[in-house]
Design a protein that fits this description.
With 77 residues, the protein is mostly helical. The protein is built from 3 helices and no strands. The chain is elongated, with a radius of gyration of 17 Å.
Length: 77
């Protein structure tokens, strides 16, 4: 449904801000989902997979923090 036009008139939130909200939410959801995957891998004692998922979870958390910071700055200004 991309039209090349900003949808702020429809959602009340500019696309660039909405995209940041989506990104943060996606990162946080991913971190939560990965916790389940980590527990599954730990139960199977599969350390390489545990390590992979922990790194991915840390990256998701970091992405969420960066996104939240950017979003705060944009919404405050």
């Amino acid at each position: 449904m991309p039209t090349g036009k900003e949808t702020g008139s429809v959602t009340g939130t500019k696309d660039k801000d909405y995209n940041l909200v989506w990104y943060v939410e996606s990162c946080l959801n991913n971190a939560l989902r990965l916790e389940t995957y980590i527990q599954d891998a730990e139960r199977e004692k599969d350390e390489p997979v545990v390590e992979l998922f922990r790194k991915a979870q840390a990256d998701s958390r970091k992405g969420a923090e960066i996104g939240k910071k950017l979003l705060r700055e944009r919404l405050a200004g």
